[in-house]
Amino acid sequence: MMTIQRSHIISMGVIETNCFLIYNEFTKGCIIIDAGEDAQAVIDKVTTLDLRPELLINTHGHFDHIAADDIIREKYKIPLAIHELEVPLLSDPYKNASVMTERDVKIKNAEILLQEKEYKASFCSYSVIHTPGHTLGSVCIAAGKWLFSGDTLFTGSIGRTDFPTGSMSMMKKSLEKLKKLDKDTEVFAGHGTFTTIGNELAKNIYLR
Ligand SMILES: [Zn+2]
Ligand SMILES: [Zn+2]
Fold first, then answer.
1. How many separate domains does the chain show?
2. CATH number for the domain including 173?
3. What pLDDT, in 10s, does the model give residues 27-52?
4. What is the whole-number distance in angstroms between the Cα of residue 135 and the centre of ligand 2?
5. Nearest ligand to the C-alpha of residue 138?
6. Closest CA to 134 of 101, 102, 174
7. Is the pTM of this model over 0.85?
8. How far apart are CA 57 and CA 110, in angstroms?
9. Which structural domain, as residue segments, surrounds residue 159?
């Protein structure tokens, strides 16, 4: 029986960004991946599902993924986890690209600095895969057969590498890591529709 569930919120900010909730349907323990820009939408979903968030993880530090972080952390009294190399983006509107919008995004420092290894939540374990390329501290989160790929891998495409700390050569190495995952791994990207590693190996020219 499947007790670990997944839910999805599309953040209606400047850019449509996917926020994910992974949770145990019995204990109601919940991890939020990328709060996005719309804190109220996340809170509404958590309330509807009667969840108890215990951790907020950012796949990387761009404003469209982090803008709601502080409201969500304050609301649920939970720590923020982000890769150690991504910390400078949280408080810097230039680095997190919010200077391109009308609102400067500055997020308080993270409590948990992620490294490439396995972590345990109350109801599941998950692995952090360091995938620099879109940004230096970009990560993908692997939990069971799911991969939350942030802005590294999209359906039919990959994230841009022309933002600060981006690198096409690093991106290529990061994609090599993802190519080794099981073909039936379901991929949930930071933007757009969902896919599988098998589908992307077959159709995504960046995984050739
Ligand atoms: Zn991004
Ligand atoms: Zn993004």
1. 1
2. 3.60.15.10
3. 999 999 999 999 999 999 999 999 99
4. 11
5. 1
6. 174
7. yes
8. 10
9. 4-207
